[in-house]
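FAQ: What does a ligand-bound record look like?

Like this one, built around FE2/S2 (inorganic) cluster:
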Amino acid sequence: MDSQKLETILDKHDRQPAALLAILQDIQEEENYLPKEDVQQVAKALSISLARVYSLATFFSSFSLEPRGKHICTVCMGTACHVRGAPKLVDHIRREFDVPETGTTKDLNLTLETVNCVGACALGPLLILDQEYHSNMTPAKLDRVLKPIKQD
Ligand code: FES
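The answer part, i.e. the structure of the complex:
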C-alpha cells in the first residue's frame, strides 16, 4: 500500500493498539488483502509485536494474507448445497475463469472461495458474488451472473 495511505489509516485510529482490528479492516478494504509490508508497518507504528498483528489477522477468516481478486465469488459447499450441485458450480467457475488451486486468477480479477453453510440451505445451491447472494444456482444461471465479471 502507498505509505501515505497507510499513514492516513494509522492517524485515523490515533495509532492506538486497541484499534488494531479496525486498522486491519481498513487496510483489507483498501487492498483486498493484508500485504506483509503493511502488517509489519502496523506493528511498528503501534509498538506492538508482529506476532500480535498476525495473531489477529489469521484469527478472522475475513482477512487474507494473500492477494485476492477484484471480485470474490463464494460457493457454499455445505451438505444441502453440495447435494444440489454446488461442486458442479465450482468446477464450472474454475474452468470458465481458469482459476488455479490457490483460488485467485492470475489477473487478480476473481477469487473463488468455498464455505460450509451460510444458513440459507433452502435456497441452495447458493453463490455469493461480491457479497450479493444468488440462490438456486445452476451452471446456466451462473454464466449470466458472472458475465459482467468476465468482461471486467
Ligand atoms: S448448505 Fe449451503 S446454505 Fe446451508
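Follow-up question: can I read anything off the structure? Yes, for example: Residues 76, 78-81, 117-121, 124, 126 surround FE2/S2 (inorganic) cluster (CB under 6 Å).
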